[in-house]
Design a protein that fits this description.
It is elongated, with a radius of gyration of 26 Å. Strand 11 and strand 12 form a beta hairpin. The strands form two sheets. Strands 3-2-1-4-5-6-7-8 form an eight-stranded mixed beta sheet, sandwiched between helices. The chain has a seven-stranded mixed beta sheet with strand order 10-9-11-12-13-14-15, sandwiched between helices. The chain folds into three domains: 178 residues, NAD(P)-binding Rossmann-like Domain (Rossmann fold), CATH 3.40.50; 86 residues, N-(1-d-carboxylethyl)-l-norvaline Dehydrogenase, domain 2; 106 residues, Transcription Regulator spoIIAA (2-Layer Sandwich). The protein contains 19 helices and 15 strands. By secondary structure, the chain is an alpha/beta fold.
Length: 508
Amino acid sequence: MSALDRSSTVAVVGAGTMGQGIAQVALLAGHPVRLHDAVPGRAQAAVDTVAGRLDRLVVKGRLGAAELKAALARLTPAETVAELAGAGLVVEAVVEDLAVKQRLFAGLEAVVADDCLLATNTSSLSVTAVAGALRLPGRLVGLHFFNPAPLMPLVEVVAGAAGEAAAVTTAYDTAASWGKIPVRCTDTPGFLVNRVARPFYAEALRVYEERAADPATIDALLHECGGFAMGPFALMDLIGQDVNEAVTRSVWEAFFHDPKFTPSLAQRRLVESGRLGRKSGRGWFSYQEGAAPAPEPHNAEPTSAPAFITVTGDLGPAREVTELARESGIEVRQGRHPDGDPRQRAGVIVLPAGTPLHLADGRPPGAPAVTFDLALDYRAATRIGIAPSAGVHADAVAQATGLFQAMGKKVSVIRDVPGMVVARTVALLVDLAVDAVAREVASGHDVDTAMRLGVNYPLGPLEWGQRVSVTYVRDLLDALHAWYPTGRYAPCAELRRRAAAAEGVISS
């Protein structure tokens, strides 16, 4: 391991929340830490804040009194950049402005030794561009911590175009020695997490813009059916609408307006109105004192379960629905696809009314039908979304509702929209993850690790794709692309290759 020696000083430039968190992580790992900020007096204030946090750790029994005393002796403010001369590693956590960062590192390079490792905590700027103004650009790497740095385990270790392998390895090993879980990635817009995560927000906004469902219902479906820790609208409010939109816009612009990353007009209007989320008291939801209770998701009225259903073919990712129906006391009959059925490859549930009930696959029904959404785990899910197409009789909607209610699920009826909510979101997450691996942005293991730890997804998107099958994902995206021929939903080349290999069309 080439981790930085514990005796080496770690300097942190930028004494805001992130800089303080990184300083705390390095300090508790045993390093001498120097904290600097361009604003006079702010470094000392940050040192005092970090000391207060360590005091609270002692009170909670997470840090011993002797460890506290030793840590505080290693933590000092630096009022000038010149005081960082002896550092073995300098981590920058200043404002997200390329010119500011380039000037900072140029000043640092004139002070520190040539073997000092330089790191930027940027979340949206090009590491290559930050290093571009340096005399020795190879020693600068991206060390992207997630907020709050002392608690979040993930660190993205980003190699710029001129980055030296030894510098990247030292940064990776140092982060690991600090108790973090580092992942390697190349210098791509959004790195790993902010690149792959865009559909989680973008598809929720798209479904809302099409007026298929309200934000509370979309959040509930992704949380209670999709298994995500938090719905996207509540999460955007927590992050800050301006921050979330700025990241989306940055990634979109960096990819030369690739339609897969197109920002949302609805979110732009929210930002323009000053409704930035929790920090402004109002975003998609209201957080002001005395505000009305948060809106409830749509819940269908209780209705009777059908006496039986007929299942034809393999339900694929939804095959567990059959067993859950049996356990709920509903007779499950076996049927066969009628000749010429356009869904020959997919199974279907036929309700007593004669109406087909399909898993969301993005394709228009050949006749009136009800679609139900993809779930992370149909047994554990507490909510299911259904969508009747045009011409579906109310009796069929009631039977589909009663079927899932009999399984103990809340049911949200939404407007018929291709791919519904969870299915289209998961499919695009899988597509972007597969594309990132194909382009050697990161390994498959690191992509899944980053998404589980960085944004708390229940599964890594590549694992999710294997669970539901890459052919299901490809077919759903192909169907969405037929509905919306903009390129936003076109499956990447590698996803097509993997799906073809799974079908035995080509060798893997």
